[in-house]
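Thread: Newbie trying to understand structure tokens

Hi all, I'm a second-year student working on a class project, and my supervisor (Dr. K.) asked me to get a predicted structure for one chain before our next meeting. I've only ever worked with sequences, so writing a 3D structure as a token string is new to me. If someone could post the tokens and maybe explain what I'm looking at, I'd be very grateful. Here's the chain:
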Amino acid sequence: MTESLVRIPAFSSRSSRRWIVATAVGVVAVLGYLWVAQPENRVFLLLMIPLALYFAALVWQSTWLDPVAGSLVRVRCRVWRREVRLEPGTAVSLVPNGGGALLLRAKAARGRALFVSLVARTDYLDQSQPPALLRQIADAVEQHRAGGARPVAEALRKQAAHLEAGGTVASSPLAGLITTGALTAAKAGGAGAIGGHLG
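---
Reply by user tm_fold:
Sure, no problem. This is what the structure looks like when written as tokens:
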């Protein structure tokens, strides 16, 4: 990592962190028990290692902004690095994920898009990136002339100004762009299933 990189924190709650730790401990405990109690299945247990490493790679990641070079960087397991430069050939936009979050999408002409969480409003989270970071992202997309930079930068600066003035995440400009279609549908489906059992 270079000194110019600024970390973009991932949103999480205390309960989600506890759940991840508890799940990891539980899986290790069960596999350890099976290793001792069922030696005939050790070959199958060894096959679980690549799967466990894959899920660890999904969880162990960090996202960074390089305001000098003008790029977003995703690092997995401190080894694999993917970079999207915020240049004229890259399109940036604000997109809801359908589950209570608003993301910055950066898509170069070639390659996959990189997504950065800006605001999250769910049953467990009510968070926004801090004003200083929002302004840094706005400056980076604008200075390096990414496609669609102006409306994105304006929205990020409005969010920063709102938070600096003491405004809440719930009433913030970016929160108004969040859609919860998938989340609402899942909740409605669950409620319908419960109602069916009660009837």
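A couple of things are worth pointing out once you decode it. The first strand starts at residue 6 and ends at 8. The chain is about 45% helix and 25% strand. Feel free to ask follow-ups in this thread.
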